[in-house]
Amino acid sequence: MIDYSSNEKGRRRIRGMLMGTALCGLSMSGALHAQASAPATAADEDAATDIVVTGTRLISPGLQSAAPISVTSYEEIKTQAVVNAEALIRDLPSATPGRSAATNNNGNGNTTINLRNLGDQRTLVLIDGKRLPAVDFSGVPDANTVPVNMIKRVEVQTGGSSAVYGSDAIAGVVNFILRDDFEGIEIDAQSSLYGGGDGHSFDANLMFGVNTGNGRGNITAYAGYTDRNAILASSRDFSRTIFTSNGTSLIPTGSGIIPAARDLDRGLMFNANRQLVPYDGSRFNNNANRYLIVPQQRYLLGAVGHYEVSSAFVPYFRFSFSQNKVDRQLAEPGFAGVVDVNYGNPFLSNQARAILFGPGSFGPNDVAQINIGRRFTESGFIQERNSYQQFQVVVGAKGDLGSGFSYDVSGQYGHVDWTQRLLGDFSFNRVQQALLVNPNGSCIDPSGGCVPLDIFTTAPGAVSAAAANFVALDQQANSDSSQYVVTGSLSGDLGKIGIRSPWAEDGVAIAIGAEYRRESASYRPDDNLAVGNNVVFGAIPATSGRISTHDLFVEANAPIAQDAPFMHLLAINGGYRRSDYNLAGKVSAYKYGAVWAPIEDIRFRGSFQRAVRAPNIGELFAPAQPSADVALDPCFASDTGAATAASALCRATGVPAANYGDINYQCFSTQCTTLVGGNRRLRPEKSDTISFGVVLQPRVLRGLSATIDYYDIKLNGAIAPFGASAQNIFDNCYGTGAGQNPGQDPGNIYCQQIVRDDVGRASGGGRLSKADGYISLLNSNIGFLRTKGIDAEIAYRGRFDDLGLGLPGGFSLSVMATHVRTYDQKLNLDSPVQQCAGTYGFVCGQPNPKWRVNTRFSWSPNDDVQITARWRYVGAVTLDVDSFSGTVSDAVAHRIASQSYLDLTAQFDVGKAFALRAGVINLTGNGPPVVPNTAAGANNRGLSNTFLGTYDLGRQLFVGMTTRF
Question: What's phi and psi for 361, nearest 5 deg?
Fold first, then answer.
């Protein structure tokens, strides 16, 4: 196979680290073949001063990590058709899908990484040990900006790393290590296609590297281009329409906001003859033209370099630039709200006037208020076009100070510009203006070139192109975010000056340092978007803020005994960081752990880590604003009208008695209006992680390594919207959720978050005024999360002839598995603990299976060929409310069965400088499991009746090539 390490020193350095850590070693072709966890160490002498393992700043030849670290290699990446870094991490059993190419509804075009299902805001993402800048005021970086083709390896440490890296590393840290010693020219190209003949993706990369003549320095530069086509929901059977359930089967459904105008309060609709007739129950398929896979166009450019002036002064730099364009698309816009209609409007029939105005005498300009809903198919699709430009510069210097000490000082600056164009919306003010029409057919208010809007018939062409253009509204927002970080650390091997245990050969290693970090962000919408003069996107006010922190940190590792009876190694380590945030106050993060190897073949490890996460700019500064959340209002669940305790509570919280149980007052399209926003009194989150495990490397079976680790992560004071979701607020108020108490007092804290309009509806159609209903979900510090589980990995490499099997060449096998024993969340002080392991749904969100397994087998019959098979397993999940209650509320949604996927890849060397690869992801073409949207809701990141990201869309084929000069 092509040798991707550029020189022998680089190969020794990587090989020394990875083989010494039992990270599953090298395949027979020299390619790292597995993602395995084991203690990280710098065992090779050449690596003693070069390797810093993720999760520590210490440099020591005898360093053993007390926390598990998982590694994915460049060669592994090439077998997965991965062009975005998020997809690479997503398949790890310890990870959960974040925002991805399948995120249409609930994203802004960026991709994120989510470890342990604790939220992408709680995973710290690094490149070469340096923070990536946040993509916006959410504080979360965009994984699209990571140059996948430049990755040498990825190191993942789960369960907290704040003592080393500071805020955000609650779930863990992902460190992308780039290729920094390449020499020559490399061209790589890859093309992929889904089994449906769509979703074509093309990725091309150029890399150029040069060493200095004296061998002391290197500059490696890269450029990349990615183009991905969209996939529409209408192209797949499972997503052509929205499905609900009758308890035994899936039923196609859609939105009640249809192309015919409806009087939502009276249950009437206009027909082609301009007559108001009873609503016929028809639904609009608002799913067909959504994106399943969003289109993307990306450009990457960057360089890394270093030069050894002397052993005491090695300056280095990294520069990166990316431009990423991603569009989102939804259905044609729908309007639902209260408008004024004048009596003399010539588009109203006499029958409609009599119903809308009632008996009496009226002038042409007298108005009636109508709660009207209509789908404006004349306006085209709702689209969001996102364009990101991001650059980051890192400069620093490191060197050997002698006597076992070295230093590393760096400064970095990152900046992101985000332009957001929102198309397909229309102006509420102009809709209102165009509905007030003189008897002669002209607008009462002709300003702005008003064109009358005729929505009182279903006859084709009633809404003219001129009228549609008059009310149409294209909006725009601009955002920028910046990050400054200055870090300095001093590392020392105190053994060089005689500070060591009398029973150990290696001395005490120590690192001390300081860091300053400042982050700022702003979001600047245009006037219409800021005040909510629109129908679809609602009000998104301007946001800006700045946070900063001064940190001091220290870390140490002390071997207690080495090469003694039952003490091949005994070492303890610890770390402490004190952070002073300008708004969130002072907070401490710390860790301690131990490694004990009674013999060389077995090693026990354990650690404790206190991690923190300071609130980000959005959580602190975002103004309160309307949003939407999929929920079913219990007060309008059915047409029962029964005088029950729930009925009394509904009336006490603002539902007129006559409207109780009337489904016509349900939130529009089950999209309840919510009020979301920041809170400047938030405090940092704190988590405690305990992990312990064992590593086996039996000398009698060389090439075999195995690890098993237990983890327990407890997060207190989690920052989250109060109640977490509109459905949780409903359930806790009205007692409809499992474990709730029916008939609660209307003054309880959950019922107080529900504000209803004059007909009792908790929905304002995306616009909030004093007369609108909504549910308050403002940020708070009262969440609790706890997850426990076991990670297990086994890897073996060898040759078939050594096993007497008679096959040529060598092979490698790795198995990674995560068992989530517990995932508990308590989203509010008074809510019960919700046990979400092995569940999915409104309460627990996307599927959180108890078992995830990733198995990989590679065979190299000779040095020019490698064939790889990968099996991915996602365990079964149960609907959360059914799991809580032990009952079956809906047989269709009750359970999502386990899913298995088989991937096959072949790589061929053609000569010494050219390699081909081809593969099939999801060979059997398993489609995603289908669940009713009433169970999945907005949590499925696309309203596509499934959970793309967790489950494959279908078969994907790819071909690629690499050539080097």
Answer: -110, 130
Residue 517's nearest CA partner among 490, 552, 543 is 552
> Up-side HSE of residue 331: CA atoms within 13 Å toward CB?
26
What pLDDT score was predicted for residue 630? 80
- 688, 679, 681, 678: which is closest to 584 by C-alpha? 681
Q: Which of 26, 115, 113, 78 is nearest to 791 (CA)?
A: 115
Q: Which two tokens stand for residue 234?
A: 């209408």
The DSSP call for residue 756 is -
Q: Annotate 639-700 with DSSP letters as a single string.
A: S-----HHHHHHHHTT--GGGTT-GGGSPGGGEEEEEE---TT---EEEEEEEEEEEE--GG
- At 366 the three-state DSSP class reads coil
At position 565, the amino acid (one-letter code) is P
Question: Burial letters for 487-515: b for 16+ Cβ neighbours within 10 Å, e otherwise?
Answer: bebbbbbbbeeeebbeebebbbbbbebeb
pLDDT one-digit tens code per residue, 426-459: 999 999 999 999 999 999 999 999 999 999 999 9
**Predicted pLDDT at 675:** 86
2-16, 899-913, 948-962: the lowest-pLDDT one: 2-16
> Phi then psi for 404, rounded to 5 degrees?
85, 5
Ranges 64-68, 154-158, 346-350, most confident = 346-350
Q: Is 586 exposed, middle or buried (0-12, 13-18, 19+ CB in 10 A)?
A: exposed
Place of tokens 């590694």: 71
Q: Give the whole-angstrom CA distance, residue 378 versus residue 392.
A: 43
pLDDT for 816-846, tens place per residue? 999 999 999 987 766 778 899 999 988 888 9
Burial class (CB in 10 A: 0-12, 13-18, 19+), 486: middle
pLDDT score of 625 = 77
851 Cβ neighbours under 8 A, 6+ residues apart: 817, 818, 819, 820, 873, 875, 898
Give the model's pLDDT for residue 649.
87
Contact indicator for 473, 534 with CB cutoff of 8 Å: yes
Please give the pLDDT value at position 15. 32
Name the token pair of 751. 């019922």
CA–CA dist 290, 328 (Å, integer): 8
Assess contact for 540 and 623: CB atoms under 8 A.
no
pLDDT tens, position by position, 844-883? 889 999 999 999 999 999 989 999 999 999 999 999 999 9
Q: At what angle do helices 726-734 and 645-652 cross, to 10 degrees?
A: 120
Distance spanning both ends of the chain, measured CA to CA: 15
What per-residue confidence (pLDDT) applies to 274?
96
Sheet holding 877-879, edge to edge: 845-848, 839-841, 877-879, 895-896
Parallel/antiparallel/unpaired status of strands 123-127 and 172-178: parallel
Q: Is the pLDDT of residue 691 over 90?
A: yes
The predicted structure's pLDDT at residue 539: 80
**The whole model's pTM is what?**
0.87
Burial class (CB in 10 A: 0-12, 13-18, 19+), 699: exposed
Residue carrying structure tokens 């149409």: 472
Is residue 117 left, alpha or beta, with left meaning phi > 0 and alpha meaning psi from -120 to 50? left
Amino acid at 480: D
